[in-house]
């Protein structure tokens, strides 16, 4: 299975990988900041937290992320998929800029530029490389 | 802040660095084992086309390597929580995330035999610095 070009559905999976993780994290941190301080003396509060809408939503998004991430790893290299997860930071920063009108510092713009360049480099190459040498059972390219 | 690191190491530098390295190592082991598990299972889209979503889920859940990988990933999660308890969020999260990108590229080349060519090294470096800048 050494498809050099990914199918549209596979790009969709990669987009979901990039989007679900940071969105899920944001939901979790928003939900946890709305909870009262949780001490070890009242661990049940943590269980309660799981059923608040923001935290439940965050957990669902992270489950979706993990499912998409595993799917992507089943047909692409780890060094191809990982930069994609970093691209999520870029998407979130841009969402914050153009949707919530947040300020982005020059440092963060530089970070956005570097990640985008890095992802662009990897995306230009093949998505799967190891099978050509490791196993001969795949079809010849 | 970087200048302070170079000029004179602040107290608590080595424990802090140790915690970040611990997060990166456990998370790299977890990522590589999970990736190896998924590669051994084969294309999940094909499996789903043949035996449905339950077949795909069964294929993942019957792979022992997957659970070893996930155990390391959860160890990495708790190592990060521990680090966050002692270090600043603005340092610990981006530092461990960007260090992990580089260690993952090295481990993927060594253990998964991925062809990490110049393009991918460059990308790992760019993304590593970028993640640090964007999250710091």
Average pLDDT of chain B: 87
Radius of gyration of chain A: 19 Å
Distance between the termini of chain B: 11 Å
Shape of chain B: globular
Number of helices of chain A: 6
- Count of all domains of chain A: 1
- Helix and strand sequence of chain B: HHHHHH
Task: Tell how many strands the DSSP assignment of chain B holds.
Answer: 0
Taking all Cα atoms into account, the compactness measure Rg of chain B is 18 Å
How many separate domains make up the residues of chain B? 1
What fraction of residues of chain A sit in β-strands? under 5%
Quaternary state of this entry equals heterodimer
N- to C-terminal distance of chain A? 9 Å
Shape descriptor of chain A reads globular
Average the pLDDT over all residues of chain A and give the rounded result: 82
Question: Please, could you describe this protein's structure?
Answer:
The complex is a heterodimer of chains A (about 140) and B (about 140). With about 140 residues, chain A is an all-alpha fold. Chain A has one domain. Helices cover about 70% and strands about 0% of the residues of chain A. Chain A contains 6 helices and no strands. Chain A has helices at about 10-35, 45-50, 55-75, 80-100, 105-125, 130-135. In chain A, α1 (about 10-35) crosses α4 (about 80-100). The longest helix of chain A has 27 residues, at about 10-35. Chain A is globular, with a radius of gyration of 19 Å. The N and C termini of chain A lie close together (about 10 Å). Helix content of chain B is about 85%, strand content about 0%. In chain B, α2 (about 15-40) packs antiparallel against α4, α2 (about 15-40) packs across α5 and α5 packs antiparallel against α6. Chain B has one domain (about 15-135). The radius of gyration of chain B is 18 Å and the shape is globular. Chain B starts with a helix and ends with a helix. Chain B has helices spanning about 1-5, 15-40, 45-60, 65-85, 90-110, 120-135. Chain B has about 140 residues and is mainly alpha-helical. The interface of A and B includes residues 93, 116 and 124 of A.
């Amino acid at each position: 299975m050494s498809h050099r070009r990914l199918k549209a559905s596979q790009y969709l999976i990669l987009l979901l990988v990039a989007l679900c993780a940071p969105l899920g994290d944001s939901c979790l941190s928003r939900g946890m900041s709305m909870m009262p301080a949780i001490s070890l003396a009242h661990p049940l509060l943590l269980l309660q937290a799981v059923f608040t809408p923001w935290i439940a939503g965050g957990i669902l998004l992270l489950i979706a992320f993990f499912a998409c991430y595993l799917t992507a790893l089943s047909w692409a290299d780890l060094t191809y998929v990982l930069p994609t997860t970093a691209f999520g930071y870029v998407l979130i920063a841009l969402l914050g800029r153009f949707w919530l009108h947040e300020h982005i510092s020059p440092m963060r713009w530089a970070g956005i530029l570097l990640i985008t360049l890095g992802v662009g480099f990897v995306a230009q190459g093949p998505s799967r490389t190891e099978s050509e040498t490791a196993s001969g059972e795949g079809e010849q390219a | 802040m970087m200048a302070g690191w170079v000029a004179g190491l602040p107290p608590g530098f080595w424990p802090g660095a140790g915690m970040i390295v611990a997060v990166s190592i456990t998370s790299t082991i977890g990522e590589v084992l999970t990736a190896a598990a998924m590669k051994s299972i084969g294309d999940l889209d094909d499996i789903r086309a043949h035996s449905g979503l339950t077949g795909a889920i069964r294929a993942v859940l019957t792979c022992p390597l997957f659970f070893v990988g996930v155990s390391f990933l959860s160890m990495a999660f708790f190592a990060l929580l521990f680090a966050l308890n002692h270090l600043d969020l603005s340092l610990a999260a981006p530092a461990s995330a960007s260090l992990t990108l580089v260690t993952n590229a090295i481990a993927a080349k060594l253990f998964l035999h991925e062809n990490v060519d110049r393009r991918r090294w460059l990308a790992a470096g760019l993304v590593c610095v970028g993640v640090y800048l964007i999250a710091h």
